[in-house]
Design a protein that fits this description.
Length: about 100
């Protein structure tokens, strides 16, 4: 989902979840939107996923789109190594609310 599409989506919908995804061992973050149907859309620029170097950069970009709440999700290699699916919806185990 391109930034302008995200901005338009946010302006017309209110039932969605924004996730800021960090990977253990990486200094970069990605942004994902999950809509009410459960479809996931990665924030992209010219068709390629956008990588942010800091949470401050993520906050600035999301604020420009009119978003002030998100969840920080840390993906841990252990889950991937043992073949377990990550569970973003488990609030106490894999995500932390962000307000900016």
């Amino acid at each position: 989902m391109e930034f302008q599409e995200l901005k338009a989506f946010v302006a017309h919908h209110d039932n969605f979840e924004i996730r800021v995804i960090g990977h253990a061992g990486s200094r970069f973050y990605q942004v994902e939107l999950e809509d009410v149907e459960g479809q996931r859309h990665m924030l992209t620029r010219t068709g390629k996923p956008i990588l942010f170097r800091s949470l401050d950069d993520v906050y600035l970009e999301l604020r420009r789109a009119g978003i002030h709440r998100a969840y920080l999700v840390q993906q841990v290699p252990h889950d991937e190594v043992i073949g377990r699916e990550t569970h973003y919806q488990d609030p106490l185990t894999s995500r932390m609310p962000l307000v900016f």
